[in-house]
Design a protein that fits this description.
globular, alpha+beta, seven-stranded parallel beta sheet, six-stranded mixed beta sheet, homodimer
Chain lengths: 681, 681
């Protein structure tokens, strides 16, 4: 039996650590947070974030302690220090900020601060008027510590330390005077910096941190099929898609995500509505990748040339958007890989290649890769080169298809390798699977993840799910991207709720999560007919055929989408770092929650009932939100631009599916006196 | 600046692990519990315990998995395997039992079980009647796996595997028949054992486990000063103490703990009531250790000889008790160490040795060791040799004085070293300090710990504190020992509550914690006069003078103590592994809680009001306790031997401080029919 090399014990005992001073190192540093699986995986933050690090730090007896957060760019030798402060019960907190993308490391170091202990004790001695030889010896002890610090200092600091050191033992001065010099406010910080820190203890673990660009946390995605961007049901091209970008940009999205753009297999090609047989004119599913026309590094000939694609990428950039590609690591039976690298696929004993199966279901148009193949290294490298190919064409955002059917170790490796050179890459994990697997993909390096939001409809479900997402350890690694629909998933709530349901889900997605996305134009055009009752498949799904969308249809949710994206951009409380609280509404169908930062409160109220008018009372904990509970305040609906004056903690709301089924309020404090006209900010 | 060697990253990424197969290893094993600080410290259990290990185990896609808990004695090569079972959501559980004291290790290993995946899929294929070349290839695939397993098996198992393997591809048999052979119930377990487990994943961490003897968790301690065991106020001897043991044994204690028995310093010796001056007849504090008469390896000449001590140890053993010694690592100014090893103490710049201080308080009779001394290695070794000296005289239990004023690394080292040779050692940490330091001492190896119980008096305080103690991570490392009093601490509740308060605290200590202790005879004789109102010091404390106790005084709590110890011994639910639940009582002063095991329920009800009769209704969640809520049941007071018939979830209790202020009920299910006389077990 070939077994994995045995696991090793983490963190050896001090006596076995090789540290020659282990017995004298009295400080304990433990329970450093944030920390993911003992430092096995990085914590995720974005550029500009303040990274708060906490730890338990203590020492035997009652000496004074100084503690620091250390951080550095990965690969650097030198640590940067940020001081920590004692909060309560040996728990310390400190922070640092990062302004550049990349991989970082942090840990905590602390030392017994003999000088501060000495000053603290000196104060107490002075209070009771201690004097005599023991007190003189204390003055000498302090003087020596200051001299030692002076020997590491220079310039004015050195001179100052030496002068004070001399004064402490100057026989011509009164003791009280000398104590006065010892208690000079400038000393502790100076001695901290230059004095001895021998016997410092560093937390036995260097914790990794990934700092992404802001779009990793705050993004609005629009997915569309370029092949439907043509006239009528004519096969659309990249050039058609270029024009369509204007429409997407006009609504304020910033990521445009395209399903796979590669040649589609002919072998076992699917027909409309997932039929196993297809006719000669059927376009097939773009997830059945590869044919004689090329594979993962080619574009579908009917979409145009690679240069056309380049122009699409450039046009998106002009519109302040980015193109995200869909990467599905699987092959149609006629993909060139199948002939060139048969050893990358699983075989039956008779030599035939296994298609995808979930017995008794067969997916004969798809050959999955065999990641357990002996040839896994060439396979891994080839798949990496696929991503590199598109990176080289300017694509920085990838939506990865079904990552949970490929090894977690593969993703950790490939994302890690690519982000080293391209820290601005963003990977969205399309994993709709069990929670531990979804979390592991996030730990392995995925920047964002699809979520269960798609099926969380009731108030209780939303509240519980948000509690799960917004607290560590999940919030340190898993960045949700909320999708009300995808080409694969037309949820029952949308099927049955009409336009009001889609509107409600849109507002929920865009306010509960700082990243959200929709599959359009199906979404805004409220195309909610299922292929069959009880399934989540679209009728005449765009996955298998070209659609002719009327984006100017009057019932389109286009205006609401435009408003939502504008509101999100203009209100930083929705950018992902705010505190989220749910509020009592006295109505099971009305959900209300606020995003609260130091200087902004955004309150969202949504009627989950897509069929009936509902009313309730929103309870706002005014004091906790930093409001004066005795004063009136204004809630300003950023969708309709209507303003309401509210008072006290309990205020009436009424939402009608026939009209506006949601409010996004900016809550404004009353800050002016009656002599001003402009009451609110 | 001398800095500690930099911390290292725990758990390298797979690609950096040196594992040549990292890319093919698809299983993830994470979140293994129990786990203390990522495996830095051992989990604590006692002999006979079943150690339940849980983990998240999953794989990409949907292959079948087999997972095992591995364990071994520390130092052994070979792992023992215990199968795990899937509980829910990729969470697995397994267990193993340990029957010998010592240090162990455990981890979790899992592999993709290709054979079980194949059988699961075969069942589904068979259900829809798949056949033809692909099905034949499947049969062949299964046959090959069975052949591979056969090649590792022998005897009947080998033959059986080979026979089945042949049958699967036997052209003379119908397919359904061959499928029948493939689904034989004996196969999975056989192939699990002999089949390929290449590409197994082991959790990247070996977790340590300490298995102690049962007394580590379940013990009743009695502390007394041997020097008070003589006639009147004559200095008692070990011989007097031998006689006193009969009294202690008669009450059912199992650990007899003696304050330090070493020579006491003459220099700055304390007088009665902690006076800084002492007269020539004053005996001093036995914690001021060492004089010209000897140090930590000597006995006080007035107590007798070391041979007398040996006899005391032997006599305790005859009475099924053990002597526990108090080890206080500090010196009187005239301790031999001070002259022999001045470098083990801290000095002022003028060369004088620093006595213990907490400015402005001075403890001139005590010189603490300087654990930061350059000579720390000889110091560490000498202190270890002190413990070894007493171990060699048959002492296996040590109460360590103020361990939180010595380095945590020292304790981890010294306890680790000694327990390697003497796994039956028990160390009780007398640390009354902040929670993180108390927890760290427990992690460092202390077997039991003093607690805040001494000051937890109200129902809410007790409930909250028990919640803290009985849940991981604390419950995995910290074994509480509840003391209602100590020679240093006479809590206000005892000072003000008279006999009823002492009785209540005794019952609480002995039932809330499987280890408890009292400082007697002060405790049972209800000696509760403080030296001064507002302090917790005893008036005329035994710490500084010899006491003449009248152990036969009628108000003694001796009988209650005897009953409590008997009840504890006879009811395994009080031995430390039971589930503890607090119950509503409809009275703030009445606390009720049950200890529940598979076959025992012990219900304790205590009146916390030491002055007034109180009554209430105890709510028992009968169904959760495994009782039939429709039937009567009996509660049998094990203190008074009274029996009550209760019915339903809510039953009346009344407790009077003037009489019995507590019940310890055995709850007995009604298990016989009306034809029997003996209704209850």
């Amino acid at each position: 039996m070939t077994e994995h090399t045995d696991a090793t014990v983490n963190n050896p005992r001090p006596a076995e650590s090789g540290d020659v001073d282990w017995g004298r190192r009295r400080i304990v540093v433990e329970a450093v947070t944030p920390q993911v699986d003992g430092g096995r995986f990085p914590v995720k933050r974005v550029v500009g974030d303040s990274i708060v690090v906490e730890a338990d730090v203590f020492v035997d007896s009652h000496d004074a302690i100084s503690a620091f957060v250390l951080h550095r760019r990965k690969g650097e030798e030198q640590w940067r220090e940020s001081p920590m402060e004692l909060i309560i019960n040996d728990h310390w907190s400190g922070s640092f900020r990062i302004f550049e993308m990349g991989e970082y490391e942090y840990t905590v170091r602390a030392f017994v601060n003999t000088f501060r202990s000495w000053r603290r004790d000196l104060t107490k001695r002075a209070e009771v008027g201690q004097k005599g030889p023991e007190m003189e010896a204390e003055m000498k002890a302090g003087s020596l510590m200051m001299e030692e610090a002076a020997s590491n200092a220079s310039g004015e600091e050195k001179d100052f330390l030496l002068m004070q050191a001399r004064r402490l033992v100057d026989e011509n001065l009164y003791l009280t005077e000398r104590i006065g010099y010892a208690l000079d406010d400038r000393l502790p910080e100076l001695v901290d910096r230059h004095g001895s820190r021998s016997l410092a203890t560093t937390f036995p673990g260097i914790l990794p941190l990934t700092v992404d660009r802001e779009r990793a946390r705050f993004s609005a995605w629009y997915e569309f099929f370029p092949r439907s961007a043509g006239k009528g049901t004519q096969h659309g091209t990249f050039k058609d898609a270029e024009k369509f970008l204007d429409y997407v940009a006009s609504m304020g999205f910033d990521v445009v995500y395209l399903p796979p753009i590669h040649p589609i297999g002919f072998d076992h090609r699917k027909g409309p509505n997932n039929a196993t047989e297809s006719g000669p004119d059927d376009v097939g599913s773009c997830w059945a990748i590869g044919s004689s026309e090329g594979g993962h590094k080619s574009v579908h000939p009917k979409l145009g040339t690679i240069e056309d694609f380049d122009r699409l990428v450039a046009r998106a950039r002009e519109l302040h958007m980015e193109i995200a590609l869909d990467i599905a690591f699987q092959c149609a039976p006629d993909h060139p890989y199948v002939k060139e690298h048969p050893d990358w696929f699983r075989h039956r004993p008779d030599g035939t290649i296994r298609y995808a199966e979930n017995p008794p279901k067969k997916y004969q148009d798809i050959y999955p890769f065999d990641f357990e193949t002996d040839a896994w290294r060439p396979l891994y490298n080839e798949l990496k080169s696929v991503l590199q190919f598109w990176i080289d064409r300017g694509v920085k955002i990838f939506r990865i298809d079904n990552p949970h059917t490929k090894p977690f170790a593969f993703w950790e490796w490939v994302i890690g390798e690519l982000k080293q050179k391209h820290p601005d890459l963003i990977f969205l994990a399309e994993a709709f699977t069990k929670p531990r697997a979804m979390e592991r993909l996030a730990k392995a390096g995925f920047t964002q993840s699809y979520t269960y939001f798609t099926w969380r409809n009731t108030k209780w479900e939303l509240q519980e799910y948000m509690r799960y997402l917004t607290n560590p350890p999940v919030s340190d690694i898993f960045r949700p991207n909320f999708w009300p629909n995808t080409p694969d998933i037309l949820p029952e709530y949308l099927q049955t709720g009409g336009r009001a349901a889609s509107a409600a889900r849109l507002v929920l997605a865009g306010t509960l999560s700082s990243s959200y996305g929709i599959y359009g134009p199906a979404f805004e055009l409220v195309d909610v007919a299922p292929r069959k009752i009880g399934t989540e498949e679209y009728l005449n799904s765009e996955k298998y055929e070209i659609k002719d969308w009327d984006i100017d249809a009057p019932h389109s949710l286009r205006d609401l989408m435009t408003a939502l994206n504008r509101i999100r951009r203009e209100n930083t409380a929705l950018h992902g770092n705010a505190e989220l609280r749910f509020h009592e509404t006295e109505c099971e169908e009305i959900v209300a929650y606020s995003h609260h930062t130091a200087n902004q409160i955004v309150l969202t109220v949504v009627n989950l009932d897509a069929h009936h008018k509902r009313s309730g009372f929103v309870h706002l904990p005014l004091q906790e939100l930093g409001m004066d509970p005795r004063r009136q305040y204004q809630v300003h609906d950023l969708i309709t631009d209507k303003r309401f004056l509210w008072h006290g903690e309990r205020n009436y709301v009424e939402l009608d599916p026939a009209q506006d089924n949601a409010h996004i309020f900016r809550v404004r404090r009353h800050i002016r006196s009656e002599v001003d006209f402009d009451y609110f900010l």
